[in-house]
Structure formats: C-alpha cells, structure tokens
Request: fold
Amino acid sequence: MNRSILTFLLGLSLIFNVFFIIGAMTWRPSEKETEARIIKDVVDRLELDDRQADAFRYLRKADQEETGLIREQLTVNHDTMMQILASEAPDIDRLRKLANEDFELRSELHKVRMENHLGLVKLLTPRQRQRLAEQITHGRPPRRASREPRTFSEEVIMRFDVNGDGELDKTERREAHKFAKQQHRARRERARQLQQRFDLDKNGRLDLEEENAMRLYLLENGPGNLSRTPPAQ
Reply:
C-alpha cells in the first residue's frame, strides 16, 4: 500500500470519528435526538440521497454494535488493570496478559471501524467522495471534553443475558464479543465475494463501470441486504 493511500485511509478514519465514534456506546432511547443530529450532519455534508441515508443508518448501527462490544471489553480491562495496580501486591503477569489483550482489542477495533468506513465509501458517487476528501482536508474534528457512560444496546442484552438480570456478566460479555467477531468476519467475507462478483475482468480491482454497478446493486437492494452477495451475473 503506497503512502498516498495510507494518508487517505488515515484521513478517512479521522473524519469518520465524528460519524461513528460519537455516541458509539450510547445507543439508548434518551439519546435518539443526538443520534438523529449526527446522521443528519453526515447526510447534509455528503449530500446523501434517501437510499444512501438509509444505508448509512444501517452501517452506523452495525458499527455501534460491533465496536460497542469491543469498547465495553476495553473498559472492563482498563478498570481491572487499575484495580490491580492499586492493590498491595500487583499481579504483574495478570497485568501483562491484560495489556496484551488490550493491544489485540484495539487492533480489532481499528479493523472493524475501517471496514465500516469503507462500507459507506462504496456507496458514494465520485462527487460525494470528493466532498468527503474536502472534509478530510479540514483537519481532525475536535474531541469531546468528556465521554458518555458506555452501555450495551438493549438488543445485545436481550440476546446474551442468559441469567436475565438485565446486565452482561463476564461470561455473557465474552459470548457477545465472540458473536460480534463472527459477524464481522462473515461481513468481510461477503464483501470480498461481492467485489469478486462485480470484478468482471478479474483484474483484482473495480473500474468505474464495475464500481457503479456494485454501488447501484447495494442501494437498490436496501440497507437490510447490504451484506448479501448478488445472484450470479
């Protein structure tokens, strides 16, 4: 990967921090108004049409679910490490294990975010990608002064709350995280198959015509079907 592509991807990650990270672990009914404002900001800035806006909502929710589980585990690990450090006899081996797990989780978080960022890019027209590039050149969005408390979405709790106490314990959280990783791998594989399907000349990349065909297919099939592979051409 050459330097220009790396620079673009880094910039893409920065600008999408506004869209995907703000509220990423705060999917609660009391914050629907904030969520609507975030989506409206993206729709307005990139001038998304109705189908693209629906697709963005779908991708954003998927991103919140996937990154939310990872972020929750990072928070749990951080709290555990602080407790160990504050103890009279810190368990160094345990700290080392948690630090290694922290690194792996952050690496996974970066990959999930990038996949979701690129998922939206696939749906943009050349003009909209130009607008995105213009947003990137404006620099990194300002960080919030403080973070909102993080919690799991109601859907995740309902699915993995085996004991029915309304929260996810360590075992339930681990199962939720495992499921999220499986979902992410499956989506990546479907995305790979999708690109192969539209790569008609089999040169390993999509030209403008192939790219437009894939973009139209994704939009015409609706946000709920974005991850499905198309029928044989």
About this structure: Confidence is low (pLDDT under 50) at residues 4-30, 139-150, 226-230. The two ends are 30 Å apart (CA to CA). Residues 50-86 form the longest helix (37 residues). The CA atoms of residues 111 and 184 lie 10 Å apart.
